[in-house]
Task: structure prediction
Amino acid sequence: MGEVPVKVTDACTGCGVCVDACPFEAIDMVNDKAVINEACRACGQCIDACPVGAIVMSEAEAVDLSDYRGVMVYAEQRGGRVHPVSYELLGKAQELAAQLSEPVYAVIVGSGVGAGAEELVRRGADKVFLYDDPTLADFRDDPYTDLLAQCCKEEKPSIFLIGATSLGRSLGPRVSAKLQTGLTADCTYLDIDPETRLLRQTRPAYGGNIMATIITPNGRPQMATIRYKMFPEAVKVDHPKGSVVEKTVDVSKVRDRVKVLGFEEAKEQVSISEADLIVSGGLGMGDPKGFELIREMAETLGAAVGASRPTVDEGWIDYRHQVGLSGRTVRPQVYIACGISGAVQHQAGMKTSDIIIAVNKDPEAPIFRISSLGVVGDLYEVVPRLIEKIKEHSGRA
Amino acid sequence: MSEGLNIVVPIKQVPETTEVQFDEETGRLIREGVAAIINPFDEFAIEEALRIKEKHGGVVKVITMGPPWAADALRDAISMGADEGWLATDRAFAGADTWATSLTLARCIERMGGYDLVICGLKTTDGDTGQTGPEMAEHMDIPHVCYVSEITEIGDGRVVLKRNMDEGVETLEAPLPLLITVGKDINQPRLATLRGRLKAKKAEIKEITNNDLKMDPNEIGLDGSFTRVVKLFEPEVPEAGEVVEGTPDELAEAILAKLQECKVI
Ligand SMILES: Cc1cc2nc3c(=O)[nH]c(=O)nc-3n(C[C@H](O)[C@H](O)[C@H](O)COP(=O)(O)OP(=O)(O)OC[C@H]3O[C@@H](n4cnc5c(N)ncnc54)[C@H](O)[C@@H]3O)c2cc1C
Ligand SMILES: Nc1ncnc2c1ncn2[C@@H]1O[C@H](COP(=O)(O)O)[C@@H](O)[C@H]1O
Result:
């Protein structure tokens, strides 16, 4: 059996503090001594909690990881257009790399994506690895996996970041399995532990009720997928010093088993991720028709329409509008929530909005605990009047 | 395909509620009294497997890696109509992250007597990564397609299917064997029948331990995991501002003032 790395020494007094501190119920009291069981995830909470310092982490066997240097970003693109999440990751990569005194890399795969590679250099990448070939025009997991894995094996970055888009969440796990390294899904925050120089990857866990920080001590690169709209984009630097490194693509050496037959763009282009203004409707509307009012309000303001999950589950609106843990993360200047209670899972997708305005009948609604302006009222009474007032106001302006 | 398809559905048992309760004093997860269910997304996977079997013939096997009581999830799947339940259980498997879980499941599936199609849930409500499926496919060296919303054709060793990407819907053709992940837009899972329940009660659950797999202890469980949870903490909440009450007109006025203040109108 795999040994648990957390050990209880003889100094244990049997006080039981660690039993309560353990989030995984991994400690039992046996004959007045703490015993770690196999539920242990080596989170270290018990080590911090033990008043007598009787719990220790056994040192992981040292693997030579010093070969790995550099923070690499996967630059996702479709039709040659680099996805903005890639620039966000590039910005974060620059921060992490500066702390580590390591270079910043980007890797881009596609057909005719040289201009995208140049843009990544202009935004501060030290090296952009370019895999450009007509056969790579459409994204397919197989060849993209093989090329990214090849790039990591050749360039040996210590950290490899991928956007947690639909594409990235399909590709990332495949690459990490191939490279035999860990992957942390859907991170919302990243930083470097100054002592160990390890990447600390933080993500919502247990349905967003709690945040977990995860490390990858022995696998390289340390891989994470990161949510869109979590970090500001890397901006153009004054004197870009980086360069594009063209990599050869040998199509006979990459797997390619799945064929793309067609692509139908979503009818309604919902770009809530990019919107500066969002008006969202929740179950409190009581009826799918509520979205007519929300849409009218959104049109009046030039805003995008968001939604809580149950309204999507009920089929009132397409899932691409869903804001939250299992939907999109949004970060608009103003987010207006109408008839949304503000469950932690919804908050997970919108709480970093600059200004949150909430309309809710219930003065106790959790949404009011995070809103800049809470309005206690019936959305069917308040919103139509608000639309009138906005129209009046713009008429005057 | 005259002999039908060999379909494997990896399922996970998860706590019924995701409104995880914490003991305020100790900050510890409260697990007592929380029922265990099949991960909701995995029910769509089971349903899709059953539909394919009904149309093309074959066999549906469910597998879970978990504690002995995860056998309940397998029986639930059998009562929906699955043919075989396989339980990978061993203390040595415990504490696995997605890398170790997917490798163990891959090795199990390879021993279960052939596979044409592996159908996973989109993600679990507890682990919540959606990584196990694609990682498993890589360990088995078969292709995978995530977020499948419709299977339009199966035959001659190939599948035509649609997948939901952020920007729209892609139509793909993939060879078998193949792994797919499915979400709630693919079907409406059936309920278990009484007959199904009776069958499930009597069904034999086949156990797999590491005595069978003989995997290196460094590849399984906590030791086989590359990732470690080092800290758990409460999410930050932004500071609340004012909460206003009044007539609908006053309230609309308050919002208008706020919108003007942030210069969006
Ligand atoms: C794993 C997991 C992931 C999840 N992911 C998401 C996610 O991504 N996004 C998401 O939104 N949810 C998500 N949820 C669901 C979440 O927990 C809540 O159930 C959901 O957000 C509630 O939606 P709601 O606020 O629209 O509905 P409710 O909670 O029912 O709230 C409706 C609100 O409307 C108010 N109201 C009623 N009538 C009126 C009226 N006439 N005028 C004004 N106010 C009125 C009520 O007071 C109430 O506060 C997830 C849950 C889980 C377990
Ligand atoms: N322990 C497990 N046993 C069997 N299948 C699993 C297990 N964990 C995950 N899966 C499968 O992988 C999918 C994604 O899980 P996750 O990566 O945890 O979000 C699930 O919907 C299941 O189909």
